[in-house]
Amino acid sequence: MNDKLAIQGGSPVVTIDKSEQWKRPIKKEMKLIKELLEDDFLSGAGTGLPKEFEENFRKFIGAKYCLTTCAGNLALMSAFYAVKVGPGDEVIAPVWSFASSYAGAIHLGARPVFCEVDPRNMLIDPKDAERKITKRTRAIVSIHFGGNICDMDTILEIGRKYGIAIIQDAAHAHGAEWDDKKIGSFGDITCFSLQGSTTTPQSGKPVAGGEGGIVTTDSREFYERMLIYCHLHRPEIRDLVTPDYRIFDEEGLGLKFRAHPLALAIAQVALDNLEYRIRKTNEFREKILKEFKELSGLEPEYSYPKTKRISIYGGVKIIYNPDEFEGLSCGRFVDAVKAEGVPIIKGPGSTQKLQHLKPQFSKGFDLWGHNRGTLGREFLNLPQYIGYKKGDFPIAEYLSENFFTIPTYIEPKEGFFDQCIEAFQKVVKNYKTLLSE
Ligand SMILES: Cc1ncc(COP(=O)(O)O)c(C=O)c1O
User: Ligand 1 centroid to 78 CA: how many Å?
Assistant: First the structure.
């Protein structure tokens, strides 16, 4: 191995590019799309292909009810509505998250309250979530980032103990399991995203159709509330059984969050080949985990024992320990690895994941104008908003500067993985040369 680091003028180790060889089955997508176009089926839900897709996904997950929406964030919003999140409530979300995970709750009049993450995997820390519970807390959002599953036993137990709904954000976790049960088949409501494409694991969600979302639940009441909230003209609204909701006609409460049939046609093909892509990307992840055992100071994210995770979207996070590298910053280490040709997808400085440091949460925001809303003065039974500041979440803040993410592949080119590992070994072996710069 040539020891001179590429970042210092040496030759990069990784010479194989365009490393993903898997091809999305576009012909299958076109066949389904052609049928929809010929049938003039460009709008509608609760019938035809959209209904078939929901049935197929519902059976795949093993849930009683499944509804598709036009985006994952709106699937989440309808879930918050279903569990009766409303003005003056609080909703707890991990501070290492994504605006879409809790945005729906804000728009329904609730205040997001952030909690810490587990230092081993950046997933919600249930104990800190419990500490953040007040009499106003209505729901907790647990996000299965990158298909790695939150500690669901503890979170569901907290939900039961305090009578708080648990919404699972499974935007990246279609087909993942907890305790041999598919994510989406237990708990209150689970939400999935269909955003992007499946061209490579990083170009979209594990089941993708451009834009779209899905909710699954076993609760008849939650299902009915979602129907009336945002599924204008769905035929199922005629068959509601909950007395309070039987007053509605097919217009429900008037919102229309339904998915586009063409998007669901593409998503159907993705669902058909999901298990293959899960298997292949799992194999890739297992190779990463095996090789990183030999690289001290670089710890792959932890999975709880009951997890059968997937690794299609979001890659595999590696937690960097600067003490093992005499204080060399993770940013400099990652720059050196990238210079060797390794495609790192996220790394230090991805502060957009730290929600509390966004100005709307540190300074507050006049949400609905006229000095109203949850991020300003008192609002209904919410006290005055006190902004977050740096230092409020030391674990998440530390991790945001000391991690990076390696993408997974479905059908990587022969030799590509070995070159990537060789690149890491080279940087680890020669890190001292980066200290003296
Ligand atoms: C963790 C997480 N939650 C929710 C969403 C929202 O999904 P959508 O983009 O379909 O609205 C995303 C999308 O990237 C996500 O990554």
Answer: 14
Query: How many C-beta atoms surround the C-beta of residue 363 within 10 A?
Result: 12
pTM of the prediction? 0.97
Hey, what are 74's tokens? 């709106």
Query: Smallest Cα–Cα separation from 124: which of 91, 103, 148, 96?
Result: 96
Helix (H, G, I), strand (E, B) or coil at 26: helix
How many distinct helices (H) and strands (E) make up the chain?
14, 13
Give the position of tokens 């209505």. Answer: 138
Q: What is the predicted pLDDT for the residue at 1? A: 58
Answer yes or no: is the C-beta of 101 below 6 A from any ligand 1 atom.
yes
Q: Residue 311, Cα to own-chain centre: how many angstroms?
A: 11
In one-letter notation, the amino acid at residue 238 is: R
Give residue 211 CA to ligand 1 midpoint distance, Å.
10
Please report the atom of ligand 1 found closest to the CA of residue 75: 11
Ligand 1 pocket: which of 77, 98, 183 to mutate (most atoms within 8 A of CB): 98
| Dihedral angle computed from the Cα positions of residues 99, 262, 240 and 190, in that order, rounded to the nearest 10 degrees | -30
Q: Which residues, listed in sequence order, are joined to residue 308 by a DSSP beta bridge?
A: 177
pLDDT at site 351: 61
* Residues forming a β-bridge with 213: 69, 193
Are 50 and 68 in contact, with CB atoms under 8 Å apart?
yes
Please, what is the angle between helix 26-38 and helix 261-272, to 10°?
150
pLDDT of residue 131: 98
Please tell me the distance between residue 432's alpha carbon and the centre of ligand 1 in angstroms: 40
Name residues of the chain where pLDDT drops below 70.
1-2, 349-352, 437
Q: Which of 141, 194, 195 for a ligand 1 pocket mutation test, highest count of atoms within 8 Å of Cβ?
A: 195
What length does the chain have?
437
Q: Could you tell me which of 40, 155, 49, 37 has the C-alpha nearest to residue 94?
A: 155
pLDDT at 346 (0 to 100): 83
Ordered by where they begin, the domains of the chain are 26-274 (3.40.640.10)
Q: Given this model, what pLDDT does residue 348 score?
A: 80
Sequence-distant (6+) residues with CB within 8 A of 299 are: 120, 292, 318, 319, 321
pLDDT, tens digit, 9 for 90 and up, residues 387-412: 999 999 999 999 999 999 999 999 99
